Amino acid sequence: MDKYEIMFIIKNTIEDEKVAKEAENLQNLITNDKGKIIEFREMGKRKLAYPIKKELTGTYFVMTVEANHDTIKEFDRKVLINENVLRHLIIKKDEGE
Question: If you placed Cys at 71, which of 33, 43, 61, 64 could pair as Cys (CB 3.0 to 4.6 Å)?
Fold first, then answer.
């Protein structure tokens, strides 16, 4: 399994409980497919540099995971169709990190 760092932004126009539930659902996408979450951080609500889908603010999350390529590919696919996620970024970490 490889290590990945995943950052995603959830829009703030939904309730706080829904933001937390959405973040939990995204974590479950990794763990349900035999992946492992090493670290998970909520970075808080922040103003976006520019409007995304007419949203001006979002809640940022960063997680470090160990997963295989297929798990990450499926995570990417599901996040792209999730209307509550404004942006996401997946970075494969080097072995030394």
Answer: 33
Q: Among the CATH numbers 3.50.30.50, 3.40.50.1980, 3.40.50.1390, 3.30.70.60, which is that of 2-38+48-92?
A: 3.30.70.60
CA–CA dist 34, 32 (Å, integer): 6
Residue 33 makes CB contacts below 8 A (sequence gap 6+) with 67, 70, 71, 74
Query: What is the percent of the chain where pLDDT is above 70?
Result: 98
Residue 72 CB: number of other CB atoms within 10 A?
20
Q: What letter does residue 86 receive in the DSSP assignment?
A: E
Residue 65, pLDDT score: 96
First to last CA, the chain: 14
* Cα 38 to Cα 45: distance, rounded to the nearest angstrom: 22
pTM confidence score = 0.91
